Amino acid sequence: MTPPKQRPPAWFTIVVLVMMIPIFFYIPLVIGMFDTPGTFEPNTKGFVTLFFPIYALFSGWLAYQCYPERKEISWILLGLLFIFYVYGAISQFIIGSTIP
Question: Where are its TM segments located (predicted)?
């Protein structure tokens, strides 16, 4: 008989959900970045637009799934996602384009 699957604590579920909130602001951010001339080459537009939301959702899901057994990996995944959020915000500030 296998033991029932453990669930992460409620506070960790809230942390994962809070880390998913910036995805809703991602599309206007990307539109603002691509409107700035010379920011991206045309080939990278589709890749960046599709890859990052998929990465963010997958990272949050994996962090939630592996928390009961590998807490460190969960925090590493969320930390990397946070670093990408900060990088996106800083690059948006440096580029200087406004969010529509």
Answer: 12-34, 46-64, 76-95
Give a yes or no: residue 76 inside a domain: yes
Dihedral sign for Cα atoms in the order 86, 88, 91, 96:
negative
Exposure b/e, 4-33, CB count within 10 A at least 16 = b = eeeebeeebeebbeebeebbeeeeebbebb
**pLDDT confidence bin for 98, thresholds 50/70/90:** very low
Domain that holds residue 28: 10-34+45-98
Q: Report the distance separating Cα 69 and Cα 50, nearest Å.
A: 30
The tokens for 61 are 């899901």
The answer to whether position 4 is within a domain reads no
Q: What global pTM score does this model have?
A: 0.73
